[in-house]
Amino acid sequence: MNRLFARKNRGFTLIELMIVVAIIGILAAIAIPNFIKFQARSKQGEAKANLKAWFTSQRAFLQEKDRYVEDIKTLGFSPERGNRYAYYFGTANTCEPRKATGLGTGTEYNCIYVDQGKFPTTPEDPGTAQAPSAPTFSGGGTDPAVPGLSTGGCPGCNIAGVASGNVDNEATGNDTWFIATKDAATIAHKCGNKDETTAVAGSPYLSFNDVDCD
């Protein structure tokens, strides 16, 4: 009886503990990277949704005014507060600041900074260094800068936008998305959609994946 009681109350051996620790380490090594990627994809939804909304607004503005416009105030485009991405729509940036004290009070803006009211330690201007370079656009007219508006007016006009933000909390690289009002081909991506060389008009194109590319 005493021998049976002693068996039931003995502790784990060192080998058993090491096996458990090894199993936990293997599971963590598999789960953590997948969790980071899943979390990044959820953050990327902001950029895709806002760029699509901007594209829809540009199409509506074209129908009414027969032109596209860089100025987001004139366009009526204003993403919700708390944006972790900055948005760029012009060649020479005049950006709307977003801080704890509120929004900018300027009359014209062609870009929007990261909301430092929500992300106070994040640089407000991540820039467009990872945007695609020299895409070739379909149809007539001149190609726009990226980001920016084509020259020469409409018809044949085109405008491109870029969203850029840090989604993995590392200092190098920024998650970067591109969109335009015409199909763009032969895109020299930075490290995003490696197998895609064409961006369909109105469809956000991942130029640099902040999780996989740095």
List the main descriptive attributes of the protein structure presented here:
10 strands; Pilin-like; 214 residues; two-stranded antiparallel sheet; 3 helices; membrane; methylation; transmembrane helix; alpha+beta; Pilin_PilA
Plain-language structure description:
It comes from Melittangium boletus DSM 14713. The strands form two sheets. Strands 1, 2, 3, 4, 6, 7, 8 and 10 form an eight-stranded mixed sheet that branches. Helix content is 29%, strand content 18%. The chain starts with a helix and ends in a 6-residue tail after the last strand. The mean pLDDT is 85. The protein contains three helices and ten strands, in the order αααββββββββββ. The longest helix is centred in the N-terminal third of the chain and has 52 residues, at 14-65. The chain has one domain. The protein is elongated, with a radius of gyration of 24 Å. With 214 residues, it is an alpha+beta fold.
**Overall body shape:** elongated
Question: Proportion of β residues?
Answer: 15-25%
Helical residue percent band: 25-40%
User: What is the number of E strands?
Assistant: 10
List SSEs in N-to-C order: HHHEEEEEEEEEE
Gyration radius, to the nearest Å? 24 Å
Q: The biggest beta sheet, please?
A: 8 strands, mixed
The residue-averaged pLDDT reads 85
Structural class designation: alpha+beta
Number of helices: 3
